[in-house]
Design goal:
Elements: H1 3-16, H2 33-41, H3 54-70, E1 77-81, H4 84-101, E2 108-112, H5 118-126, E3 129-133, H6 143-149, E4 154-160, H7 172-182, E5 185-189, E6 215-219, E7 233-237, H8 240-244, E8 248-249, E9 257-258, H9 267-305, E10 318-321, H10 326-335, E11 341-343, E12 348-352, H11 359-373
Parallel strand pairs: 2-3, 2-4, 4-5, 5-6
Antiparallel strand pairs: 1-7, 6-7, 8-9, 10-12, 11-12
Helix pairs in contact: 2-9, 3-9, 4-5, 9-11
The structure holds pyridoxal-5'-phosphate (PLP).
Pyridoxal-5'-phosphate (PLP) is lined by residues 27, 83-85, 88, 116, 118, 160, 164, 189, 191-192, 221, 233.
């Protein structure tokens, strides 16, 4: 095939992908232009062999310090993962390995029933039992339910700072107290919320990071609200010993050991994450969140005017609406060119107001919704 023919083929495939301008169902978005530039510049970099790519490694170290600082601890230990799934696997694997060395077996962890499906993969891969704790009427995990599920083989509790379905924040401060009392590892899944909560006007209501003494590790995804390129997640540990639990020796590389789950690893998305954080800074990231939150308000207010109520008042930029025949509404909206998603329990329509969403998009979506529900 020559390049022209290949170009036509690629364009044809591209035309079948949906543009984000019609997508309200995803936690991904267009990467920032500086992220795209940095990604291209470091496209060949393999940070899996970091001695060969010292500049990329310097960027990763700085990114870990910057994100750590954003999470209340600039001395946190971690690395840039492929996303929230890898970060969650690695956090649980670290504590599992530590307890296994102490001789414990048949271990379990406790996650909220609203946890991301990556924890079902974790149960399978790590061969540990994943117990699901109940939630309150606002869909936050119930600390009493967590305590009831706990036994001498419980090695970890998970709290979610920004649930995938509802954008709700668990009472991490209470979980942190339990973690301290029971001396149990507390992992906070802030894959989505990590780049949102620090910039909310009422952020003090949602303490979730390393400033809480009981928090041991945090997942936070630059490829969601951090506007980096895919794949970019981040795992942070308060203590270096947990990162060491993940080490395997790497005899034929420039480094002696490796902590990451994947071997070859994208230096491009490390560079992209570095670029966004340097270019936007906290002020720039806050502007992104402010804009998403104001459009979230616009969408919820518009829905209420139609007599449609949200499942919870949005805490972050996730809107869930109670409508009859949810799946029918999803299909009808799809026929009008809108891609939305649904929640499981309770069943609702789910929209994520990502940085690619504009005021025009929200207004035209509300018109479509109005026609569909009438
Ligand atoms: C998106 C998400 C994940 C999974 O992240 P991936 O990057 O898709 O692997 C995990 N937890 C939460 C809360 C998420 O929103």
């Amino acid at each position: 095939m020559d390049k022209e023919e290949l170009e036509r083929l690629l364009a044809d495939k591209k035309s079948k992908d949906l543009p984000y301008t019609r997508i309200l169902s995803s936690m991904c978005t267009y990467p920032h232009e500086v992220a795209v530039h940095a990604h291209e510049m470091f496209i060949e970099s393999n940070i899996g062999d970091s001695g060969l790519f010292k500049g990329t490694k310097e960027m990763e170290d700085e990114v870990i310090a910057i994100i750590g600082e954003l999470m209340g601890n600039s001395n946190a230990y971690g690395y840039i993962t492929t996303g929230g799934t890898e970060s969650n696997i690695q956090a649980i694997r670290a504590i599992r390995n530590s307890k296994r060395r102490e001789g414990l077996c048949d271990m379990n962890i406790i996650v909220p029933e609203t946890a991301h499906f990556s924890f079902d993969k974790i149960a399978d891969i790590l061969c540990i039992e994943v117990r699901k704790a109940g939630v309150d009427h606002q869909l936050r995990v119930d600390p009493e339910s967590v305590k009831e599920l706990m036994d001498e083989r419980t090695i970890c509790m998970v709290g979610i700072a920004g649930t995938t379905e509802f954008g709700q924040v668990d009472p991490i401060e209470e979980l942190s107290e339990i973690a301290k009392d029971e001396r149990i590892f507390l992992h906070v899944d802030a894959a989505f919320g990590g780049f949102v909560i620090p910039f909310l006007a009422d952020r003090d209501k949602y303490k979730f990071d390393f400033t809480l003494e009981g928090v041991s590790s945090i997942s936070i995804d630059p490829h969601k609200m951090g506007m980096s390129t895919i794949p970019a997640g981040c795992i942070l540990f308060r203590e270096e010993s947990y990162l060491k639990e993940l080490a395997v020796s790497t005899p034929y590389l420039t480094t002696k050991e490796q902590y990451s789950l994947t071997g070859t690893r994208s230096g491009a998305s490390v560079a992209a994450t570095f670029a966004v954080l340097k270019y936007l800074g906290k002020d720039g990231l806050k502007k992104v969140v402010d804009r998403c939150m104001s459009l979230t308000g616009l969408m919820v207010d518009g829905a209420k005017q139609m007599g449609i109520e949200p499942v919870i008042e949005p805490v972050m930029n996730v809107v869930t609406l109670r409508v009859n025949d949810v799946n029918g509404v999803v299909e009808a909206l799809r026929a009008k060119g809108w891609e939305v998603s649904t929640t499981r329990s309770p069943e609702a329509l789910r929209m994520v107001i990502m940085p690619h969403v504009t005021e025009e998009m929200v207004k035209s979506f509300l018109e479509a919704l109005n026609e569909v529900v009438r």
